[in-house]
Design a protein that fits this description.
This protein has one domain: Distorted Sandwich (Beta-galactosidase, Chain A, domain 5), CATH 2.70.98.10. It contains 2 helices and 20 strands. By secondary structure, it is mainly β. The strands form 3 sheets. Strands 5, 10, 11, 13, 14, 15, 18 and 19 form an 8-stranded antiparallel sheet that branches. Strands 6-7-8-9-20-17-16-12 form an 8-stranded antiparallel sheet, with no helix packed on it. It has a 4-stranded antiparallel sheet with strand order 1-2-3-4, with no helix packed on it. It is globular, with a radius of gyration of 19 Å. The protein binds 6-O-phosphono-beta-D-tagatofuranose. 6-O-phosphono-beta-D-tagatofuranose binds next to strand 18 and strand 19.
Length: 303
């Protein structure tokens, strides 16, 4: 079947029979999303190059979250609260939203899907708040990947709720020791490798020689991740997501993770658009929106 005959959106069986949606762009670009966790596991450019990292040891078996791609961390980032790490949204089965709220009319040649998550009775026992989490995943005509989250408090009890959030994006890189990140210089961060104490970043772009696990606070709307070997820059543009988490487990932590190859830390970097420092509080009827747009430039945006 030629690519021109392929449907722009197809639902097929993925690993272990889990359902996944394939979104095909006009120039051969492609995105894959598992309904389990509304989890983007693949984002390919027009050359068919994979831009996201997914571990070869990822288990793809509920209730374990998929290791890599873009896990959705909601309603709790990390262990900053009573729920399981990164909350439960990434290990729930999402469904197609057949009644999406009116979004601004999308430009032509954009392929998108609308998914929705509502709490189950079990969820309400551990997090007693009614919500609707709508996620639009869009593949733009230039191959850019956009995720727009809309969380609404649908409670009728008059009670507000508070949450933290992250798009836990795993970028695929040639060699972590040849990667630089621009946009986070001189900012304050909480260092998870030092009891989450607050520090101030030095003045030039980030490079990587050991484990890093930092929550940068009040970050700019644009962050660049440069892969020197590939002469490729990932651009992250974000709205409603003031913080950014940078994580690489390095060798020791990599070996300690069953669903992560010992040497895979060399070929990934997480840069996560997030809301951590100032959690979001929604009154009944209120809605929060958080959007990240990922794109690539085939050159290094040197400072
Ligand atoms: O985003 C960084 C982080 O919070 C790290 O501390 C590490 O725990 C990573 O997320 C992976 O978390 P996970 O629960 O997916 O193994």
């Amino acid at each position: 079947m030629s690519s021109s005959e392929r449907k722009p959106i197809e639902v097929i069986k993925g690993i272990n029979g889990l359902e996944k949606v394939v979104l095909r762009g006009i120039h051969g670009t492609c995105v894959e999303v598992y309904l389990y966790g509304a989890h983007v596991t693949s984002w390919k450019n027009e050359l068919g190059e994979e831009l996201l990292f997914v571990s070869s040891k990822s288990i793809f078996k509920p209730p374990k979250p998929i290791r890599g791609g873009i896990p959705i961390c909601f309603p709790q980032f990390s262990n900053l609260g009573p729920l399981e790490t990164h909350g439960f949204a990434r290990n729930r089965l999402w469904t197609f939203d057949d009644d999406p709220p009116p979004f601004p009319p999308d430009a032509a040649n954009k392929v998108f899907i609308d998914l929705i998550l509502r709490p189950t009775k079990e969820d309400l026992k551990i997090w007693p708040h009614s919500f609707e989490f709508r996620l639009r995943i869009t593949l733009g005509p230039g191959g850019d990947l956009m995720l727009t989250s809309r969380v609404r408090n649908t409670g009728t009890d008059g009670k507000p709720f508070t949450f933290t959030f992250a798009y836990h994006t795993y970028f695929s890189v040639s060699d972590i020791s040849e990667v630089r990140v621009e946009g986070l210089e001189t900012l304050d961060y909480l260092d998870n490798c030092q009891n989450r104490e607050r520090f101030t970043e030095q003045g030039d772009s980030l490079t990587f020689e050991s484990e890093v696990d930092k929550i940068y606070l009040s970050t700019p709307t644009k962050i660049a991740v440069m892969d020197h070997e590939k002469k490729r820059t990932f651009l992250i543009r974000k709205e409603g997501l003031p913080d950014a988490v940078v994580w690489n487990p390095w060798d020791k932590k990599a070996k300690a993770m069953a669903d992560f190859g010992d040497d895979e830390y060399k070929h990934m970097l997480c840069v996560e658009a997030a809301v951590v420092e100032k959690p979001i509080t929604l009154k009944p009827g209120e809605e929060w929106r958080g959007r990240q747009e990922l794109s690539t430039v085939n050159k290094l945006l040197d400072s």
